[in-house]
Amino acid sequence: QVQxxxxxGGLVQAGGSLRLSCAASRSIxxxxxxxxxxxxxxxxxxxxxxxxxxxxxxxxDSVKGRFTISRDNAKNxxxxxxxxxxxxxxxxxxxxxxxxxxxxxxxxxWGQGTQVTVSS
Length: 120
Hints:
Blueprint: E1 4-7, E2 10-13, E3 18-24, E4 31-39, E5 46-52, E6 57-59, E7 67-72, E8 77-82, E9 91-99, E10 108-110, E11 114-119
Parallel strand pairs: 2-11
Antiparallel strand pairs: 1-3, 3-8, 4-5, 4-9, 5-6, 7-8, 9-10, 9-11
């Protein structure tokens, strides 16, 4: 059973930076992409950033130019560098690793979530 362990969340002042990490407990075969989501209180979970196996990245408009997603295949880890943080970035952040739907599942792995709080 693969587990994703997140770290790097915390409390930061507006304008500050945090770097989130999401490490898989072992190698995952057939990765399609890796994502970071977030969920603020009373709101739906939203997709923040995506990186494909070809290193193509996409970002939500609200974080473009401030957040950077990256990955280290050797360490089975995906990162989210968050700069110029705003109070509206406050949320629980979740990583997701997606597999191609070929062969037996599971096809999705989720981290446990890490709290990011940005004070004004």
